[in-house]
UniProtKB/TrEMBL annotation, chains A, B:
<protein>
    <recommendedName>
        <fullName>glutathione transferase</fullName>
        <ecNumber>2.5.1.18</ecNumber>
    </recommendedName>
</protein>
<dbReference type="InterPro" id="IPR004046">
    <property type="entry name" value="GST_C"/>
</dbReference>
<dbReference type="GO" id="GO:0004364">
    <property type="term" value="F:glutathione transferase activity"/>
</dbReference>
<keyword id="KW-0808">Transferase</keyword>
<dbReference type="InterPro" id="IPR045073">
    <property type="entry name" value="Omega/Tau-like"/>
</dbReference>
<dbReference type="InterPro" id="IPR040079">
    <property type="entry name" value="Glutathione_S-Trfase"/>
</dbReference>
<dbReference type="InterPro" id="IPR045074">
    <property type="entry name" value="GST_C_Tau"/>
</dbReference>
<dbReference type="GO" id="GO:0005737">
    <property type="term" value="C:cytoplasm"/>
</dbReference>
<dbReference type="InterPro" id="IPR010987">
    <property type="entry name" value="Glutathione-S-Trfase_C-like"/>
</dbReference>
<dbReference type="InterPro" id="IPR036249">
    <property type="entry name" value="Thioredoxin-like_sf"/>
</dbReference>
<dbReference type="GO" id="GO:0006749">
    <property type="term" value="P:glutathione metabolic process"/>
</dbReference>
<dbReference type="InterPro" id="IPR004045">
    <property type="entry name" value="Glutathione_S-Trfase_N"/>
</dbReference>
<feature type="domain" description="GST C-terminal">
    <location>
        <begin position="90"/>
        <end position="222"/>
    </location>
</feature>
<comment type="similarity">
    <text>Belongs to the GST superfamily.</text>
</comment>
<feature type="domain" description="GST N-terminal">
    <location>
        <begin position="6"/>
        <end position="85"/>
    </location>
</feature>
<dbReference type="Pfam" id="PF00043">
    <property type="entry name" value="GST_C"/>
</dbReference>
<dbReference type="Pfam" id="PF02798">
    <property type="entry name" value="GST_N"/>
</dbReference>
Length: 227, 227
């Protein structure tokens, strides 16, 4: 394998679910890379140069060629490094995986974040609780095996790290029950299997500092709303 | 080629930019298919069965296997029918095409529609005029050749049919100048080349009925707003 002679870099922050997706994929494939921790309050010149459109992380850089958008990065990684595929070689299975990963981004990520952080708008919060619940229900019914990928994790599992790790963390701050074993038993079991997968486990951010980070953000919003 | 013995169906409506993308791709590849016109006010059982999640068009059905989401469909078509590729075989070029097609969907489609149809909220309209202008500027700078695909159309060109055909149509209704040759000369030239491409030209919906459709929608919003 040539990857050790290549330059593989990931610009990111530890607490981002989108960065975490890329870390999991890289580890799953066994690719060595350099992680460059960004300070989003003071973005590096590299970040601005590599992702001038969004100026966001993750940015994946392979031999000086930058790629943004976590799902686009995952597809690239899977095409360049063939070992341990995360997408099926069958075009139909691949299209289903793309559909569900996009579904997670479009229907679950934003609504569950808003359900927690829309502190000054009870109607908006309720609307987003409903939307994320509805979407999680659809995904619950979609889960057929141990993982979305069957016996091993795939593209959809990796995209869904947001559900397994981030939703439980942020819902606790707002004392919400968006996602638990009572409401979504299959998805909850999946999340436990997934979080305990060796590759996933060692690439999750430490829980406590991340909880403190989101809690302080939540408290600041609450303080601003009550003024 | 086996495609003539296969069942290839597209469920859609004529006036949808997302359906139009799939039509262009199928024609570009020379794939025979059956177009099933949907009535969105009274959706068919097939549509509800094939796309239970969104109940939206386009749905592409290949030998009874349904796929939703226009960009996911384009990728599937490109993988199954290899002639006249719309995505490069180079993983990096492919990732750039995916990035820009997603950019069009995330940053241009919604904002330009809202710029036209937010008739009862001037602030919202202005915000969306700004957002779509900003995004079109970024895309203008990205265009290097005759087409996004170089000498021939590719995935990004097909995604951008929305810009070439739909924005000029809806902006006229609201008397806005979101996209024209003064503001975006390169992108405007591209749009003319693209709309005159033989494959594109014959797959665009007839302009007048579509204009009338959007105009009546606009007038209805306006009437509701002035009550």
């Amino acid at each position: 394998m040539a990857e050790n002679q290549e330059e593989v870099k990931l610009l990111g922050v530890d607490g981002s679910p989108f960065v975490c997706r890329v870390k999991i994929a890289l580890k799953f494939k066994g690719i060595e890379y350099k992680f460059v921790e960004e300070n989003l309050a003071n973005k590096s010149e590299d970040l601005l140069k590599y992702n001038p459109v969004y100026k966001k992380v993750p940015v994946f850089v392979h031999n000086e060629k930058p790629i943004s958008e976590s799902l686009v990065i995952l597809e690239y990684i899977d095409e360049v490094w063939k070992q341990n595929p995360i997408l099926s070689s069958d075009p139909y299975q691949k299209s289903l995986a793309r559909f569900w990963a996009k579904f997670i981004d479009d229907k679950i990520v934003t609504s569950s974040f808003k359900a927690v952080f829309a502190v000054n708008d009870e109607k908006e919060r309720e609307k987003n609780v409903e939307e994320s619940t509805e979407a999680l229900k659809i995904l619950e019914n979609e889960l057929k095996g141990k993982f979305f990928g069957g016996e091993e994790i795939n593209f959809v599992d990796i995209a869904a790290v947001f559900i397994a790790f981030w939703i439980p963390l942020v819902q606790e701050i707002a004392d919400l029950k968006l996602f638990n074993d009572e409401k979504f038993p299959k998805l909850y079991n999946w999340s436990q299997e997934f979080l305990n997968h060796s590759v996933v486990k060692e690439n999750l951010p430490p829980r406590d500092p991340l909880f403190a980070f989101f809690k302080s953000r939540y408290d600041a919003l609450l303080a601003a709303a009550s003024k």
